[in-house]
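Duplicate of #3305? Posting structure anyway:
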């Protein structure tokens, strides 16, 4: 048996279980070997009761204090016990386990391990694992149990069992890392490293193994990028787009002056579009730095030269918003160009009509979502493709769109704060422009971090702002991995808030479960100020621009990553009014406080990303997932920034010595790169 065999060959995996594994993308034994845990359950030393922290899982050792009680009703019986050590007493509850009253009451030390939450009466440990007598915990102490991503019906234990068997078929032959690199970086040998990823003996061995695979992942990624770049050496500029007086006029009549940074970036773009080679440029700029107007200038330059330009947005809401803004501006400044909207939710008839105008060239600025790259769309003369908030797009989508014209100019807009050195490695095929200045009329957002006792005050403040004519966002608590629960949450919250605010203030709600038309209707209403308070999930995170909104209240702020909070906050502070961001969190944990304080004191995306990295530190097992940034299976572009740089160097060296990867010791790498290229084409988001 070897790693190519189906997992059905493993003991204990019948047809049903096999189907479940297929659902998580595991088909062969090799897939299973590379199905690394998403985290580990670590059995740490028990802590004194007085040092327990809310929201964390911990072990405590003590003796039962008083009587064990069973309460609740038949459907949900609750067992309550008080555990005492020399530092204090802890309330502990279990659901549906009334028999514990008899089994735990016999005296002697007891170790419990579970999550601690804050209830009205103080900290409570909920439904912990039981180690009785305490020595049972000693045996487990410091071990790390892998925790795998699962699907309904598949248990963590089933995966552990299968992985244990699969590991017998790991062989050095599957190693792809040239031995020189293994030695240079002191990586553990392949087979051992695989073992250490699944069942590490301790944190150090996990970190060592992780480094190896993160490096491998980066190396393959960088090599694949270099290949792509190689394959498409910058083509000749087939669309020379000279200046137009109408464009100059437009710039002069804008209600504001471009910032210095906007001017510089626009010059860079203009030079590209009028230069010898086709443009391939990334524009990085923090939220609110004014990227849209830059995109519009490029689109106008294309349109005014009789060519088409397309703007692709990651969500329908955003595409529609861009469409409205841009058609509004075309009209206002009497620019004789027609904008066209193309999204998936349009009716067949609407689409057909749009296709027609795109094909005959009467539409010159085409704005939409993925629908822009459907096969049915034929452009007359597509000369420019702009993708907004590009990290939500796959390279393949970018290329599919680019493939619709004679090599069009490519402009990619991103608010993801990646340090320049990293960006150069990651986007090796793009030139980079940075808008590193916010418009001058902006008042810095005022931030505050508060606990839930402040909620009433926050509502009063919002009400006051609304009565002054402003608008507010409320971002609802995130419910892990359940869109339908999230929807419920948002709806409950908004009806509660609506009551709280009284009749004249309209509260709308927005969540991922809504139909596109419903979303559009709510966004439109919010845009027109018919809705004053928008309660939403993170649907609003990307790009929405309603400058009249001045307050954003983020509930359960501790559940979001810093980068995401920064994006969310970017929904306000976009106009001339003073704006406010309220980070609300019930959490009393020190780390949460420290994290939120970073946002409290800085509005600078680059700084925040750096601090996020510092706080998490290299080797943080459960790093906060950055939203929208390159998703690697193991590696993390922030946390492993140094490793990425090393991989970049190693890749260059390999290519210098063996440009076609023809040496036998590069055979494995080559195979992986080809797979990676395919995968990048298919799904990886850049
Ligand atoms: P982002 O970079 O996040 O995409 P937008 O392009 O949506 O930001 O711009 C945010 C807001 O700032 C918009 O309402 C836009 O009209 C305005 N804006 C853009 N450039 C300037 C400027 N130079 N001066 C004043 N306001 C500007
Ligand atoms: Mg934007």
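Output from current build:
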């Amino acid at each position: 048996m070897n790693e190519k065999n189906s997992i059905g060959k493993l003991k204990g995996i019948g047809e049903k279980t096999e189907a479940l594994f297929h659902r998580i993308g595991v088909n062969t034994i090799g897939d299973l070997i590379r199905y690394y845990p998403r985290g580990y359950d670590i059995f740490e030393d028990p802590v004194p009761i007085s040092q327990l922290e809310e929201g964390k899982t911990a072990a405590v050792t003590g003796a039962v204090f008083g009587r064990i009680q069973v309460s609740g009703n038949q459907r949900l019986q609750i067992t309550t016990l008080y555990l005492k050590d020399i530092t204090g007493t802890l309330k502990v509850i279990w659901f549906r386990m009334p028999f514990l009253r008899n089994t735990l009451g016999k005296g002697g030390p007891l170790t419990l391990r579970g999550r601690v939450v804050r209830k009205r009466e103080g900290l409570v440990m909920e439904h912990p694992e039981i180690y009785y007598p305490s020595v049972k915990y000693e045996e487990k102490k410091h071990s790390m149990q892998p925790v795998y991503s699962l699907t309904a019906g598949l248990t963590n234990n089933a995966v552990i069992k299968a992985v244990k068997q699969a590991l017998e078929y790991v062989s050095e032959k599957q190693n792809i890392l040239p031995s020189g690199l293994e030695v240079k970086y002191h990586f553990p040998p392949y087979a051992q490293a695989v073992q250490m990823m699944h069942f590490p003996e301790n944190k150090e061995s996990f970190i060592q193994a992780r480094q190896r695979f993160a490096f491998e992942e980066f190396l393959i990624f960088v090599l694949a990028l270099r290949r792509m770049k190689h394959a498409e050496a910058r083509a000749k500029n087939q669309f020379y787009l000279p200046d137009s007086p109408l464009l100059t006029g437009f710039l002069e009549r804008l209600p504001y002056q471009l910032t210095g940074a906007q001017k510089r970036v626009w010059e860079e773009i203009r030079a590209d579009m009028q230069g010898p080679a086709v443009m391939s440029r990334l524009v990085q700029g923090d939220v609110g730095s004014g990227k849209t107007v830059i995109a519009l200038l490029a689109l106008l330059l294309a349109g005014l030269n009789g060519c088409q330009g397309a703007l692709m947005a990651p969500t329908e809401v955003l595409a529609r918003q861009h469409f409205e803004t841009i058609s509004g501006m075309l009209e206002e400044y009497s620019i004789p160009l027609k904008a066209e909207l193309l999204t998936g939710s349009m009716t067949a008839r609407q689409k057909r009509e749009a296709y027609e105008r795109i094909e005959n060239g009467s539409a010159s600025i085409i704005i939409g979502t993925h629908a822009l790259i459907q096969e049915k769309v034929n452009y007359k003369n597509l000369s420019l493709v702009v993708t907004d908030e590009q990290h939500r797009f796959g390279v393949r989508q970018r290329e599919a769109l680019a493939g619709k014209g004679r090599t069009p100019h490519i402009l990619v807009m991103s608010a993801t704060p990646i340090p320049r050195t990293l960006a150069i490695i990651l986007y090796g095929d793009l030139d980079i422009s940075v808008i590193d200045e916010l418009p001058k009329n902006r008042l810095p957002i005022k931030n505050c971090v508060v606990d839930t006792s402040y909620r009433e005050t926050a509502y009063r403040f919002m009400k006051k702002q609304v009565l002054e004519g402003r608008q507010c966002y409320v971002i609802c608590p995130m419910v892990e991995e359940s869109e339908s629960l999230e929807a419920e949450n948002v709806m409950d919250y908004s009806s509660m808030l609506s009551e709280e605010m009284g009749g004249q203030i309209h509260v709308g709600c927005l969540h991922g479960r809504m139909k596109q038309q419903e979303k559009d209707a709510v966004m439109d209403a919010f845009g027109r100020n018919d809705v004053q308070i928008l309660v939403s999930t993170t649907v609003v995170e990307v790009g929405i621009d309603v400058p009249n909104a001045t307050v954003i209240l983020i509930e359960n702020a501790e559940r979001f990553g810093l980068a995401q909070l920064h994006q969310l906050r970017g929904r306000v502070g976009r106009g001339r009014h003073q704006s406010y961001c309220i980070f609300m969190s019930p959490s009393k944990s020190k780390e949460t406080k420290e994290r939120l304080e970073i946002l409290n004191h800085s509005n600078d995306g680059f700084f925040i990303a750096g601090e996020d990295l510092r706080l998490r530190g290299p080797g943080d097992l459960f790093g906060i997932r950055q939203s929208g940034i390159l998703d690697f299976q193991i590696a993390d572009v922030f946390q492993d920034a140094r490793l990425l740089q090393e991989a970049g160097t190693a890749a260059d060296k390999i290519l210098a010595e063996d440009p076609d990867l023809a040496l036998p010791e590069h055979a494995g790498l080559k195979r992986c790169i080809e797979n990676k290229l395919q995968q990048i084409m298919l799904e990886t988001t850049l």
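Confirmed duplicate; merging threads. The chain is about 40% helix and 20% strand. The mean pLDDT is 86.
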